[in-house]
Sequence to fold (532 residues):
Amino acid sequence: MTAKTPSKLEKVLAAGHFAVTSECGPPRGSDPTEIVEKAEIIKDHVDAINITDNQTSVCRTCSLAVCIRLKTMGLEPVLQMVTRDRNRIALQSDILGAAHWDINNILCLSGDHQSFGDSSKGQNVHDLDSMQLLQTVRLMCDEGKFLGGDDIKRPPQMFAGAAANPFADPFEIRVARLAKKVAAGAQFIQTQCIYNLDKFEEWMKGVRDRGLHEKTAIMAGLTPMKSAGMARYMKNRVPGMDVPDEVVKRLADTPKEKQAEEGIKMCIESIQRLKEVEGVRGFHIMAIEWEEKVPGIVEAAGLYPRPEV
Amino acid sequence: MIVGEQKPLEELWESIKDHKKVLVFGCNTCVAVCQQGGNKEAEILASLLRMKATQEGVDMEIQDSGIERQCEHEFFEKTEERVEWADAVLSTACGIGVQFMAEKYPKPIYPGLNTTFLGAVEELGVYTERCQACGQCILAQTGGICPIARCAKRVMNGPCGGSTNGKCEISKDVDCAWQLIVDRLKLLGRMDDYEKLTPIKDWSSDRAGGPRKLVREDVQHDS
Ligand code: SF4
Ligand code: SF4
Fold:
């Protein structure tokens, strides 16, 4: 496999390495200090950093601005873009804005419903859905065209990805839905946080049966648990999340002051096990407001140093 | 049909309180089915407002009446007198009826309902949304279930990652439209269709394209 874009993430994958990404959420204000610090903490341990787009529908500094900030620091951002807040004019315009700064990775999402955030009285746009955004990115990059049909001068060069939830309902379309994202043009996939490894492996088998792991690079998503309370919350309150009872129990059986450490250990064990799963091409470590733990996890999981490409 | 919900009495009172002769005017089609704006509901609302006027010590005459549909000229003929009598009308039609009446009569026509959606009578007293009149129906592709009206994100290639146990991420009380679509495609033996990508939608026939108009010249000439 050879990389088609200047994306470092794509190059790492093309060279056959496990890729490692992480994510940072932009600030709820205009001060760049914190996000710069977060990026500094993880930069040597990951190949690229996802910048979330108003995640959980809470209003923040825009993803694109923070991606540009990372770019000026010499880092590799993944621009997350949701279809909730922008129509096709704004989406294409922001893609060009990212390309203007040679941002080479994009993750296409639909976004959480606005009722979860601080703007529940607002409209949602959803002019396109996440698959159609993927198609749009590929059209702009591969054919150098706008959706309207006109040519783009200096088309963007982007490695286009999507999210996948191996645990989502309805059960019978879990694999089919990935096939659809691949057909729409997803070159990489970052999955929902995996806690139920048996179920994930079952999904991967379905993915391999259809050869999808050869058409897209699947990166397993992981979020270390900070406490038994967090595990319970994720299990009961976060839509589309599959947290088995054993996970909650293991944390609950650990003394409170040791639960965070146990959560990290569990995350590392998961990576070790997932490395053996055929078709898993990398790891997306989402340590929410816990970025300082990422380097340790990456090292303990045997994913450090990161390759030079 | 069009579903509506009566506005709170306080809000209605605020709009009519400065008038002397008020007609509460029902519409006996859609909004009568959901028992919010029919002629019978107009009658009840009129008596509630009369009580309110008495309580507030306001000298006001309130009558009620209604017609079959407030969105067609012909039905108004019989009630011209009543409408002429009033110096303000509280219409319990949907937003269409209210506007149509306002275009006909040079006096204040106030809305008595919040027009809520285009829906069905799921069971007595339960009405649910089915269509958003997007102008380009895709039900043939989605097993007869509308993702525009029934998916909180109008996802065309769903479901999103938030679908859980058949319910939408916004609430455990709302069915996930895409679960319904998948169930339906399965029932029809059409699961292969699930993998067909729904193309980017042309929203120009939707609200986005501006106010819509349908002209049937054949019908125009016939009448
Ligand atoms: S596709 Fe459009 S016309 Fe058809 S039911 Fe849905 S909103 Fe209504
Ligand atoms: S859960 Fe289902 S109905 Fe709700 S937004 Fe997602 S796809 Fe649409």
Q: What stands out?
A: The first helix of chain A runs from residue 8 to 14.
